[in-house]
Amino acid sequence: MQNSEAMALSAALLAVAGELTHRINEGVVARGFEGVRPAHGFAFARLAPGGATVTDLAAHLGVTKQAASQLVDEIVRKGYAERRPHPQDARARLVVLTEQGWACTRAAEEAAAEAVGAWVELLGEGEMSVLRDQLARIAPHGPLRPAW
Amino acid sequence: MQNSEAMALSAALLAVAGELTHRINEGVVARGFEGVRPAHGFAFARLAPGGATVTDLAAHLGVTKQAASQLVDEIVRKGYAERRPHPQDARARLVVLTEQGWACTRAAEEAAAEAVGAWVELLGEGEMSVLRDQLARIAPHGPLRPAW
DNA sequence: ACCGGTTGGTCAAGCAGATTGACTATAGGA
DNA sequence: TCCTATAGTCAATCTGCTTGACCAACCGGT
Q: Residue B112 is nearest to which of A7, A45, A135, comparing CB atoms?
């Protein structure tokens, strides 16, 4: 593959990612959740299964734990999560979603389905499942990084 | 498609985009271009064809023109671009890449090819061209937005 | 049991990138 | 010739993140 093709592919991918993020965020806001930023969604995704510590979250988001702690402060203040004592470790605190946090997560899923649905119109169901499979195969396992 | 599938697809796409951005930037830095941020690459892409005004850049990057102007200040200071009087409009200034700017752009293309090359190992040539085609079809035409 | 190093979390200060607001100079149509 | 829209900059401010310092709790070896 030529370098210029790789660049065009990269640009398309990043444009799609940026647009997707924007649409999901718009959709969440449109559903009545104000003051949420895209980064919160990634935090919610990590918190959802059963809570997480600030350090877990920091590693997941690829930021310092101070930054993660500030983000938690913010979503706690806005009512999306709460800090609880950690059952096994007295130093740690388990951050878990509140009911409002779950509602916001569901709203994000709906918004994502809406945005992705637009692609189905362009690609068709068959190619969409191919795309999903391909992305799953090349997705990294490291921390989620902001695109730029 | 279920909401949870859309969310998984979105997460995979954003993870891939974040990783790609990170790798391209790493590759550019490794080739000796210091003090460059991912956002600069998107600016370079817009400047490359024949220069652009600050206002063009602002629209392309989806930021205010003050922010775009500051970014131009930075890449000018670092020697990647220069401001010239605009041939048609005395108010405007045409920002064009210097030779160093072109070199950096080529380095970014190489880094992109390297990063994308890793996917070829996972998907094979055939599926890669499918992916390229699919992304090109769903890529938006609006401004490039930071992923989060 | 205790001690030393590691780990989870917060406080505080500072920085970098972006925004809003105000302003000047040129463009361009009525 | 106005009058408005546009290109660009200056200045102040905000926000999210980083670095650095610190305390409390865990845990392995002795």
A: A7
Does any domain span residue A146?
no
Q: For residue B17, give the nearest of A37, A48, A38, A118 by alpha carbon.
A: A38
- Give, in degrees to the nearest 5, the angle at Cα A17 between A69 and A96: 30
Domain count, chain B: 1
| Cα–Cα distance measured from residue A27 to residue B96, given in angstroms and rounded to the nearest whole number | 38
pLDDT in tens, chain B (148 residues): 677 789 999 999 999 999 999 999 999 999 999 889 999 999 999 999 999 999 999 999 999 999 999 999 999 999 999 999 999 999 999 999 999 999 999 999 999 999 999 999 999 999 999 999 999 999 888 777 765 5
Closest CA to A76 of A45, A108, A32, A44: A44
Strands (E), chain A: 81-85, 93-97
Q: Which chain C positions have some atom within 7 A of a protein CB? A: 7-13, 17-21, 25-28
- Structural domain that includes position B16: 9-138
DSSP A74-117: HHHHTTSEEEEE-SS-SS-EEEEE-HHHHHHHHHHHHHHHHHHH
Give the pLDDT of residue A146: 64
